[in-house]
Amino acid sequence: MARVQILGVSKRYPGRGRDAAEVVAVDDVTIDVASGEIHAIIGYSGAGKSTLLRLVNGLERASSGRILVGDHEITALSESKLRGVRAGIGMIFQQFNLFHSKKVAKNVEYPLIVAGMPPAERKARVAELLDFVGLADKADAYTDQLSGGQKQRVGIARALATNPGLLLADEATSALDPETSQEVLALLKRINAELGITIILITHEMEVVREIASRVTVMDRGRAVEQGEVFDVFSAPQTDTTRRFVATALPTAPDPEHLDELRQRHRGRLVSLTFRDGDVDQPVVFRTLAERGVGVSIVHGGITDVGGRSFGRLTLELIGDDLKVEHAVAALGQEADLEVLA
Length: 342
Ligand code: ADP
Hints:
Layout: E1 4-13, E2 23-33, E3 38-42, H1 49-56, E4 64-69, E5 72-73, H2 79-86, E6 89-93, H3 104-114, H4 119-132, H5 148-160, E7 166-170, H6 178-195, E8 198-203, H7 206-212, E9 215-220, E10 223-229, H8 230-235, H9 240-249, H10 256-265, E11 269-276, H11 282-291, E12 295-306, E13 309-319, H12 322-335, E14 337-340
Parallel strand pairs: 3-8, 3-9, 6-7, 7-8
Antiparallel strand pairs: 1-2, 1-4, 4-5, 9-10, 11-13, 11-14, 12-13
Helix pairs in contact: 3-4, 3-5, 4-5, 5-6, 11-12
Bound molecules: adenosine-5'-diphosphate.
């Protein structure tokens, strides 16, 4: 429900020790997150993601630039005013950050106590929240009796307690196994869709971005190096950092070693085709080959979903006499994003 504007924001830390250079953890970053959007910030360790998140909820002060969450200018508020605004910003963490010696219900109730809600109302609200995250039967369990996925659900219920317009997720699924990660991501999607809460999540996992985000910012050494719709950024990466992330979760052309192996087994011409949703028509590709009397077998790659659209990269072996293959490659090059693997 809240739009978040990060406008030319930097955070510099003094260097440690004498003459040490200062660290520019966040370097002139601008991100405009629309109300109701799920925005992922992806980057390797040290890229500045968590610093940026701490600036958004005002746990740290920006060195320069402005941050607005809804109508509140976070970078201009006093510490006491910030405390009020923070009730409108939920946060979940990689390590869940629960009170282990307290029951599940108490953990979820805590922010409501801080907000001064009367006990009877609190009880009803906690029940409603636990029901929403599928833990109605765990109210009286201690958090250390729960699985990782259940702990994160408690963290989510607690973060939602005060009806925030913005949810910040700090590597929320990085400590979970793949299946549990999927469940938690599905819950975050539901929160976004049903409650309209804006979500900013930071992650080093491409899979998370692919699953859940609509827009993404790629960070590298403090800077926002790429930004846009998830599909656009990952189907046509512009920087090496983005290309490295893409290679972890999307089908790629074979690397040189694998290409050598493929050549041992496939004598025909190898070409790599990139399919972007709405851009290349698969039937046209296969018809073009058939019409020219060229046989085809798929030897590597695949098709997958990115930001709700399909993206694929297939390595094809083209089989037939040289001239026919030559013509087919020329014709395909007109219709598709094609690379001949030399
Ligand atoms: P990420 O979350 O992407 O791993 P961080 O925001 O934690 O990145 O860190 C970005 C850079 O800022 C790193 O070089 C880190 O060492 C530095 N940094 C973070 N917090 C501090 C701090 N409190 N004091 C000094 N340097 C810091």
